[in-house]
Amino acid sequence: MKEIGLGIIASIFFAVTFILNRSMELSGGSWLWSSSLRFLFMVPFLVLIVFYRNNIKQLFYEMKKQPFQWLLWSFVGFVLFYAPITFAAAYGPGWLVAGTWQLTIVAGTLLGPLFWQTIQTKNGQTKVRSRIPLKALAISSIILIGVVLIQVERASNLPLQTILIGVIPVAIAAFAYPLGNRKMMEVCGGRLDTFQRVLGMTLATIPFWLVIAAFGFVSVGAPSSDQVLQSFIVAVSSGIIATTLFFIATDRVRGDQGKLAAVEATQSTQVLFVLIGEILLLSAPFPNGLAITGLFIIVCGMLLHSYVTNKMNSNSTKLAVKQKKVQEL
Prior knowledge:
- The structure is a single chain.
- By secondary structure, this protein is mainly alpha-helical.
- It has one domain (about 1-329).
- Helix content is about 80%, strand content about 5%.
- It has 13 helices and two strands, in the order H-H-H-H-H-H-E-E-H-H-H-H-H-H-H.
- The protein has helices at about 1-25, 30-50, 55-65, 65-90, 95-100, 105-110, 135-155, 160-190, 195-220, 225-250, 255-265, 270-280, 290-329, and strands spanning about 115-120, 125-130.
- Strands 1-2 form a two-stranded antiparallel sheet.
- The chain starts with a helix and ends with a helix.
- About 50% of the residues are buried.
């Protein structure tokens, strides 16, 4: 499935977030600046893209119709996602943050009942509450086991306080990101493209990022030039490229909870890329046998997700063809 491929590519660029956030903290940068600068840097790029595509007016029209919804779910999807992640990076290594972030694999699947989907019945179309896709949940759980194996031995060398500070904020982020993303897809209803939606969510959260930046200035002073540069790289790599690719993938399958879970499960590959990045850039130790087993399980889980999703697509196509033939008769 093409959407799974987009999700994996997005994971490569998302991995930059965990590596550079940890790098900034190790060099004395504050998480307050790491979080706020990313989104402040994103604005001009997104404005230029949406303006070039002549879609600005439509975006503002949609935001004006439901301002509270935009503020609420943008806050959940962006602020409650990124602020806790950068905070956790200040107290724990990037691999621990990236590993804990994989809770989003299961979180996205469990959120299904909070949403409604349109189905075709004999009496026409009707909306029903989505169910938890058990098959997708089972596969996602297998991937999560692989993630846990990667973390076990390395986490055993850390103090409990470090683990808790590195885990709890990221667990909040892991549920906030898919919830905010899915709710905003529901609010937009397919009327906006991915660039418009990302820009709208970014603009809606600017007041919150300015407050966080103000706290940063008061508490630690202005950011260093090195932190500004690395935050800029994160903004382009993770904020623009990765977020756009991931949102495109989720937009395409937003009507199917099983396929949506498969796309969200691609974020598990971030652990692989973060491990590689930390080994090359931050001199992190090479994974041991248990961690390699975990990596193998993650890869197998992703392949299984891809297989099941492709099979679902094939069955859906065959069913559509049969229904068409019946209608023609």
